[in-house]
Amino acid sequence: MTLPHISPLHEPFSGQDQVIGHLLMRGQQQVADFDTLQESKAALIKDLKQRADACTAASDLTEAEALEHRRKEYGLTKGQFAAVLGLAAANYGAVTFGKRRLPAASIGRAAAIGVPLQPMLAGRKIKEARP
To answer: pLDDT tens, 69-110?
Structure first.
């Protein structure tokens, strides 16, 4: 049994050819990275669409329901969740019973951990930024 002849392009690079070989391998890696990036981008777009759909579905929730849903999903106590939002437990309780609205600083924190914005912003007056 004889081995097939290997063309010079398939042999290990040496000397000046080593630089060219390195560049070729980098080019191949960049193509592979691009393909991986494209797959990651497609997965990201799919995830973002699912999140947007979930937020649209969450538009029927009240602020308290949206907060409680996320709290239970994370398995946190009301006190723990209040701390995450930067609130005292009593203030969080007032929000969940509908006696108070979530403070603006806590809305950003809640949104950062996945609470839909729509229920938290519903019925609020949005102040325009001063120039």
So the answer is: 899 988 999 999 999 999 999 999 999 998 999 998 899 899
| E runs forming strands in 1-131 | none
- 111 Cβ contact list (under 8 Å, min separation 6): 117, 120
Closest CA to 95 of 118, 115, 68, 116: 68
Q: 83: exposed, middle or buried (C-beta count within 10 Å: 0-12, 13-18, 19+)?
A: middle
pLDDT digits (tens, 9 = 90+) for 17-58: 666 666 666 666 666 666 666 677 777 777 777 776 665 565
Angle at 81 between CA 66 and CA 102, to 5 degrees: 55
